[in-house]
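[recover] target loaded
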C-alpha cells in the first residue's frame, strides 16, 4: 500500500512515523509531504527519505491512502483528496462538526466503504473509550473534563472564555457519545515540570451503580490499568493508568476518575495502525 503522510513535519506526524517504524509488521511505501521549501530529509530505519513539497498534482501519484496531520486550515486539501477518490484519515480536526464524516475511535465496523474518516484529537483517544463504555452501562448525564498536559511555559492566567481547544474537545465528545441529553464541560490547564498528561473526569450517571461495577467496566477497556493491577511489568508508556476511582458526592449518582498517560499519542497511533490493517485486508 502506498501511503501519503501529509503535514509530515508536524510533531504528531513525526512521532507516528517512528512509532509505526518500530511496531508495524507489514511493509508499506510512504510518500512524505509537507509545505516548506526547501524540503528536508527524514531518517527512518537508517534510511533518509526526501520530504516532497505539496502540490495538487501529487495527489494523482497512485496513492492508496492519505493521512493528514496539522490544523483545520488544511481542510481544502482533505476535500481534494476525497474528490480524487483517495481514502483519507483526517487528523486536522476539520470535520469534528461534520455528521457525514465518521469519527473513528477503535470502532472500525463500518469503515470499509468510507473514503473520508476523521480521527479524534489526542486527548479523546485517551478517555473517549472509557466514556463510551460507561455510557453503555450506566448512561451518562453530565461529564466535566479537566486536562493537565505537560508544557514548556506554564501560563500564569487562563482565559475566562472557553478556548478553541476546549470547545473542540466538547464537540468531539458529543459526537462520540451521540446523545444530546448528556451535558459536558472541559478545561485544559498546561503544567510544567511533569512528564505525564493527567485527566480528571467527574461523571454523573442516570442509572444506578456501585463502585465495583464501575471498576469492572474500566477493567475491560483496552490499555486501561487500575492502580490495583499496576506492577513493575506494566507498560507505562502505552497504558492509561487509573490512579483513583471514587464517588463524587457533589451529585446524586456520580464518580470521579483520575487518569494519567505517559504518551497519550500512542492511542492515536494504535487507532491509525488498526485502520491501515483494515484497509489492507
Amino acid at each position: 500500500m502506498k501511503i501519503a503522510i501529509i503535514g509530515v513535519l508536524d510533531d504528531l506526524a513525526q512521532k507516528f512515523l517512528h512509532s509505526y517504524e518500530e511496531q508495524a509488521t507489514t511493509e508499506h511505501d510512504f510518500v512524505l509531504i509537507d509545505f516548506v521549501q526547501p524540503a528536508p530529509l527524514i531518517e527512518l530505519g537508517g534510511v533518509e527519505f526526501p520530504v516532497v513539497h505539496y502540490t495538487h498534482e501529487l495527489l494523482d501519484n497512485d496513492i492508496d491512502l492519505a493521512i493528514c496531520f496539522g490544523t483545520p486550515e488544511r481542510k481544502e486539501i482533505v476535500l481534494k483528496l476525497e474528490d480524487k477518490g483517495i481514502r483519507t484519515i483526517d487528523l486536522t480536526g476539520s470535520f469534528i462538526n461534520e455528521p457525514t464524516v465518521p469519527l473513528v475511535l477503535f470502532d472500525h465496523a463500518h469503515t470499509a466503504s468510507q473514503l473520508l474518516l476523521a480521527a479524534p484529537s489526542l486527548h479523546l483517544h485517551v478517555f473517549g473509550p472509557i466514556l463510551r463504555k460507561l455510557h453503555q452501562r450506566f448512561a451518562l448525564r453530565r461529564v466535566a473534563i479537566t486536562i493537565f498536559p505537560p508544557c514548556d511555559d506554564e501560563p500564569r492566567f487562563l482565559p475566562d472564555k472557553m478556548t478553541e481547544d476546549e470547545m473542540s474537545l466538547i464537540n468531539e465528545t458529543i459526537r462520540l457519545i451521540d446523545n444530546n441529553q448528556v451535558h459536558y464541560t472541559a478545561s485544559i490547564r498546561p503544567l510544567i515540570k511533569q512528564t505525564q498528561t493527567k485527566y480528571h473526569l467527574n461523571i454523573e450517571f442516570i442509572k444506578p451503580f456501585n463502585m465495583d461495577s464501575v471498576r469492572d467496566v474500566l477493567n475491560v477497556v483496552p490499555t486501561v490499568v487500575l492502580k490495583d493491577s499496576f506492577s513493575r511489568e506494566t507498560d507505562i508508556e502505552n497504558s492509561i493508568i487509573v490512579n483513583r476511582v471514587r464517588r463524587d458526592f457533589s451529585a446524586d449518582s456520580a464518580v470521579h476518575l483520575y487518569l494519567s498517560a505517559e504518551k497519550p499519542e500512542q492511542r492515536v497511533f494504535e487507532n491509525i495502525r488498526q485502520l491501515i490493517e483494515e484497509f489492507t485486508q
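[recover] notes: The longest strand covers residues 140-148.
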